[in-house]
Design a protein that fits this description.
- The protein contains 2 helices and 2 strands, in the order βαβα.
- The chain is mainly alpha-helical and about 55 residues long.
- It has a domain of about 40 residues.
- The chain has a two-stranded parallel ribbon.
- α1 links the parallel β1 and β2.
- The chain starts with a strand and ends in a 16-residue tail after the last helix.
């Protein structure tokens, strides 16, 4: 989530609603890139036929 809201309630609410990260303005471009890289998978996903069936 990228927002100008910096108060603790907004941060908690954003994360509770499913945000993986909560970034506020002013932005640090290096921080954004680092967080995006952390969220992206490091290995390509398996083809559908090789995935385990749902439990």
């Amino acid at each position: 989530m990228l927002t100008a809201k910096t108060d603790p309630f907004s941060r908690e609410q954003g994360l509770a609603l499913g945000a993986n990260e909560y970034l506020t303005k002013p932005l640090n471009p290096k921080e954004i890139l680092t967080k995006i890289r952390k969220l992206l998978p490091t290995e390509p996903p398996l083809p559908l036929r090789e995935r385990s069936p749902p439990l």
